[in-house]
Amino acid sequence: MVLDALAKASNITFTDSRYGFVAQLKHKGRTFVLLKPSTYMNLSGKAVNYWLQKESIALENLLVVVDDIALPLGTIRLRPRGSDGGHNGLKNINEVLGTQEYARLRFGIGNGFSRGRQVDFVLGEWTDDELKALPERIALAGEAVLAFGTVGVERAMNLYNNR
């Protein structure tokens, strides 16, 4: 949703390509390659690695945007590196890339699910209250993505974490 909002705001569209849907966004003299993997989430590393190689993107320029049930809805946390935190997509990216040394933007989706119902929650529909809150938070996450690419991870963290 964060990448879709960035694309919409920039009047660009995703094209169906190898291992995912890809768009190029130009912002402040930088080119952002936006990738929405079409692989299963727990195989995202294949898509990420392929596009890093294809576009000759250095690892320090990689930012992975993921949902996070450990954060309240709409909370964003930008980090320069870290563990997978139990996220299967990050776990696969770590395995394929052989490192955890890449930035990630975690977007909180809350944890309003019953014991054993995590999959249903993550793949379920948003409530009306959540749908009202999401656009502003998604836009903020999009701003954080652009800041990462223009002012770097440390400055972007200072600007967007805790907002």
Written description of the protein model:
With 163 residues, this protein is of the alpha+beta class. It has a single domain (2-160), classed as Peptidyl-tRNA hydrolase (Rossmann fold). Helix content is 41%, strand content 21%. The protein has six helices and six strands. The strands form two sheets. The chain has a three-stranded antiparallel sheet. A hairpin with a 2-residue loop joins strand 1 (15-17) and strand 2. Helix 1 (2-9) crosses helix 5 (128-151). The longest helix is centred in the C-terminal third of the chain and has 24 residues, at 128-151. It starts with a helix and ends with a helix. The model has no long low-confidence stretch (mean pLDDT 89).
Order of helices and strands: HEEEHEEHEHHH
Strand-residue fraction? 15-25%
Largest sheet: 3 strands, antiparallel
Number of strands: 6
The name of the CATH superfamily reads Peptidyl-tRNA hydrolase
Q: State the end-to-end distance.
A: 19 Å
How many H/I helical runs? 6
Q: Provide mean pLDDT, rounded.
A: 89
Morphology call: globular
Largest beta sheet: strand ordering: 1-2-3
Question: What's the CATH topology label?
Answer: Rossmann fold
Unreliable spans: none
Number of domains: 1
The level 1 CATH classification is Alpha Beta
CATH architecture group name: 3-Layer(aba) Sandwich
Helix-residue proportion: 40-55%
Rg result:
15 Å
